Fold each of these.
Amino acid sequence: MKWQRWAIPASGLPVVAFLAWGLTRDPHTIPSPLPGKPAPGFALQTLAGDSLRLSDLKGQVVLVNFWASWCLACRAEHPVLIEAAKRYRDQGLRVVGVAYQDSRDDARAWIAERGGDWPIVLDVGSHTAINYGLFGVPETFFIGRDGRILYKQIGPLDKEVIDRWVPKLLAAAPGTAGVSGTGAPADTFAEGRSAGHVRVSPEFPTTGGTVRPK
Amino acid sequence: MNGVVGHAATLSALLLAAFGAVAAYLGGLRRDARYVTAAQRAGVGVFALVALAFATMERALITHDFSVSYVAQVGSRATPLFYTVISLWSALEGSILLWALILSVYTALLALWSRRHNAPGAGVDPYLPYALGTLLCVNIFFLLLISWPANPFRPMSPIPPDGPGPNALLQNSPFMGVHPPLLYTGYVGMSVPFALATGALLAGRLNPDWPKLIRRWTLVPWTFLSLGIVAGAWWSYEVLGWGGYWAWDPVENASFMPWLTATAFLHSVMVQERRGMLKTWTITLIVSTFLLTVLGTFLTRSGVLASVHAFTQSPIGPFFLTFLGLVLLGSLTLLAWRSDALSSEGRFDAALSRESAFMVNNLLFAAFAFVVLLGTMFPLIAEAARGVKVSVGGPYFNQMSVPVALMLVFLAGVGPALPWRKGSLELIRGKFRWPTIVALAVGAALAAAGVRAPLAWLTFVLAVFSAGLLVIEFAGPTSARHRTTGESWVVALWRVCASNRRRYGGYVVHAGILVLAVGVASSATFRREREWTLTRGAVEQLGRYQVRLDSVWAVHEPNRDGVIAATTVSVGGRVLARLNPRLNYYKSAMEPIGTPAVRESLREDVYLVLLAYTADGTHATIKAIASPLVAWIWLGGGIVGLGALFALWPSAGGAPRRDPMPELGRPRSRPVSEARV
């Protein structure tokens, strides 16, 4: 009888242990099967009218940046991207912008206003976004020289993220399957600041909606 | 200066609370009134110091003293005064300061009140000092938080010239001035019944007046919590722009779960009071209520679960977990230790009685709370068990909760109609006849009018049935009084209600819940939604409403810029309302925040949201929602509040008066206790 009585308070211990484990988790992490996998290829028309294939860039370090002219967070992110493109250009970093759910004129005007000299392709029909499992804009995929995705940033990029990942990618020798110490895919996944991230299908709309062109 | 004063005040409050807790427990142990008096004074002193800290923070916010870290975090010179004042609870540290303030108010009230109860000369009854000590321990925890890991008074260096302003969603609606204080007053107030329960367990016995006492100390926070939840739903409806009011978000659930267990408690404590039964269960409920408030705060404030309400990842998680662990293990140990003192005196006499209605009610509320808890925790459980990320959405909660809610709607009328101990079938047949006939007639009329949604139909029919039973509870004694005294119907009704505030206030609360249930069922089932891109001057149709876009223009305000779509809503050519949904651009928000425009009426709301516009102002994309009876939810919440206030209002003359007329079928031998419920 005596010990049975104390079984009740003892049953609280696993609950506390479980919650303590919960503290170590980040609920904002969004799982994706993509890290470590080859980046899905695409062949799309640039704003200038040329054709661009991702496979043409094989052997180089590429940032594939999904954005849209109607996305406010992308405005905040843009200067970071310009700075990164400038700083790492000589070391071989290539940036490709993918305009998501956008019109050619809007995207062109946006770039003309804000700068950026990297190629922008128009994802007509959003097929590329679907292949990349896009959750919203902005989202940026860090692709190594071997064509594999090493890291995915959900939400706007910041300088810290760029400086953490780009030098590692650039330092890796061509043909190696990633950078040592950074390959563990699930752990390297983190969402950026969710504040600026425009989800494609919000589960819980927190605002009156996104300013869309149509 | 403000920072130093504020921090010094919180630190002194912490020390004083610690001193008071020790004095209270010693006073209880030694039955020494001097210690108890010291603890009571400390309780009042803690309130004074926390109030000073709170006032200092308000002063720092209003005077834009950016040397205080919290002001630098949420303040801005451009924010209007009203929003500056309420920005105190717009982020983590400030909201804990508000929590500490409300907690200290309750502590001071309990201290002053227990002073009257431990009159000099009379021996010290240890259970009140123990309760005060426990409440002071809860104070210690929150004061520790604002003294250290969530200190809002940290000095800033260098001092910024201006700040970002509060969270944009907070700045967007005056509801933010109402909803958090109401909710916190309810949420935090659940500490008092917990402290009283712990005090009773520590003292090892339940005084005869314990149920009445703890019921009153629970009904106050329960009322605030109910109003806070409804105000939160209203805020969500008026601000978030999705036309809904409840999304089963973890923070909403965190406020709802303690409400469910507290409601169960308020019912089971009546069984305890009347029949001396369900003591362990009742104490378990009130301890669970407090635990759920701490758990809810932990889950949503420490970054364990994702939520729209979650503040940024904060370091207070481990502190909350430690506190939660201490409370959980401590109260379970107390319950196990003292379970012998809580044996039942009464027994169930019949299946058909008010006791059994209360039992079913309690099972339903407990099941409801468990369902919500499971759904809230499931993402964490799934990750622990299978390593997968899942999110539990509305479908789970709706499917699980609608049947329980329907049964509760049914019981809201049936419970009050059943007599204590044993009901006779004859009595029940007599009472149930007319409500059944009316409910079935309404059901047939609804079906004939084309209502094809079975759950909504059932809600309406059950609500009418229960409302009919409640009307009989009022009408029976009123008509008897009218006949015997010759008073007018209105006077007779008032006298009947005033003769037993607890009972009739409770029935008014039930009626409010019925109104609320009808509003939820109707607005959830019959809501219509359309989305159009309108050219200026164009008209679109939503049901019987024509919506015309008149113009689109921009406004500049000190703290935000806005774009407004002016629309005219008319019915059959008659103008019903001019609605101006808008999008607001705040410095602190990346995305625009919408302000929907709502034309509210008891029959149906028309709700417009501006989704997008063209820069030249020729086009606007507008979402239009028509929700029938949605205003009944707010109305029902108001009725609940009024009923609870009526029940709490002290009767004239102090002691509860007796029923003038014994009710049909009730044993006349126990009139005194009859008068209580």
Amino acid sequence: MSLFSQMPISTGSKTYGVIAEFKDPADLVHAAEKVRDAGYKEFDCHSPFPIHGMDDAMGQKRSPVGYIVGTAAFIAFFGIVLTLYWITGIEYKFVISAKPYFSFQAFVPVFFAICILTSAIVATFGMIVINRLPQWFHPLFESENFTRFSDDGFFVSIASTDPKFDLAATRSFLEGIGGTNVETIEVELPEKKKAEAH
Amino acid sequence: MSAEQHVERHVEPPLIKGKPRFADVTEHIARVIEGKTAKTWFLLFGLAVSALMLLIGSVGYLVWEGIGIWGLNIPVGWGFAIVNFVWWVGIGHAGTLISAILYLFRQRWRTSINRFAEAMTIFAVICALLFPGIHVGRIWVIYWVMPLPNQMAMWPNFRSPLLWDMFAVGTYFTCSLLFWYVGLIPDFATLRDRAKKRVKKIAYGIFALGWHGGNRQWKHYELAYLILAGISTPLVLSVHSIVSTDFATSILPGWHTTIFPPYFVAGAIFSGFAMVMTLGIICRKIFKLENYITMNHLEKMNKVMLLTGMMVGYAYGTEFFTAWYSGNPYEMFAFANRAFGPYWWSYWIMIACNVLVPQAFWFKKARTSITWMFIASILINVGMWFERYVIVITLTRDYLPSAWGWYWPTVWDWMTMIGSFGLFFTLFLLFIRWLPMIAIAEIKNVLPQANPHHKHKGEGKDHAHPAGAEAKHQADVTGKPNPAMGGTG
């Protein structure tokens, strides 16, 4: 279940995968459970908003963003403490209101601000990078119907890179679990790749 | 009382009225920015830009001539600039409180107001940052406040509260901006997918980053959002505390008090909510969003204002008590001078607006009257501006009568202040014209049908769920709020 699993171009396949629409959040959760139980790994459930319980239904692990941010904040803390120690205690020694050079109590607001600032930047950009964004082109956007995911559409997509993927079987499986508007997503390959595929 | 009656009594009014479907939510909120630009908008924008021109002009002249054009002098070396700085930073705090603290406390009603409150925060902090920036007089060397290696081999003084301010407010601005942007990503995707014109599609598409709403994206997104809320929460308390140390670490009577940090924070939230109220009332009326920003929301905000107003009033009382109890003649004089000295009127404007006006919110009639709450919200912000004015004006009479003086703002002070409103409203009007002023994805999330257990109510066992979800399901059936609805799973 790698993060890179939905990158279709590297496989040289022309079919990105299959999508099916479901009626509402509850149906999508149940569909996710069935897709998971059927043994598919490289699938995703698209919804206009996050649905509670979807991680379990899809059999997904917790996001690592928390550990990344925690580590970054830790490094930032030691980084800024050492930086200020160097600036005030070594590089630029000045006696100000008769306080010790490294009067760390007065630096707490700065330590704090830097930890927060680093955490916010790492949380935002960490999330973006883990999500492999920005990725302005995505094969799913080929489908006219799919764009409703950002309005009121609930979709399951199964990628052709999944070992269990079989176009006909996957299509009928999705129909079998209550999916409507089942659609095969085709991707135009770049010329070079096309030649290789032939 | 039977259990059933007990449940009945605690039923909250629906967060969103009119029982909209998911598609309705998109439509209602997106139409505000997709429709033709209203004439009112152009009128307001014209006014705002005119005021912005005043700002550009007065700041330009300031840079040319120096801060002598302001009414600053000894003993009052800090005038309108610091008053406006503190006031604008304070305004911002409500946005962060709504977006971060109310999120962590699962106050789902925050969802209707968080987007434009966050926008308000960002624009208010921009206005705030302007003032210390121009107050240094030599704006072209403002980067000296930052610890950058330079050929002079100099470093800033990290013991100075003014430097802490730079870090605190800079961090605050960056965090607020990132938090706001992260919240906007799914809505950018919505606007991208709805856009008819190619230019719009590309413009919104760039900011949407290619969002496709898959749970593999949502799970990272939600955790990042939760973390941003978590780290913004201490900022609500820390930023204005640090701002207050600008005053509190000095050894001037009336300033050197430990009550300043909590008192500033309460005041900040108080004035910020008043500003959210002012903007919210206008926007819900103009854009017909009464079903999203309901009377229930407004009433809750009024309750917050009542609470924080009382805290501020309590702080005013404590200041006087401490001055008396200290037995320090300078301290006692400073406070007597505030209330009965030459600037007595500013003190009593502050008391009337900040302490007396919110008392009306004890009554449901006042809490649910649009007219009253609109007037009150403006009065509160006037009062909060005067609070900072009163603090600064304490400088006019310090230890020695021979050193006493006056402070009167000049026309440039006024123009800069009016201009900062121009900057704020220009940005805010651009925001409501091009971005959804209510978080579309988050609103859908608090609708009852967004809960995957919604339609199974009363159907008994929901077999398909793993063990842990069962208790959760039961909780949903009994009508408790779903913790996921704030957004996090």
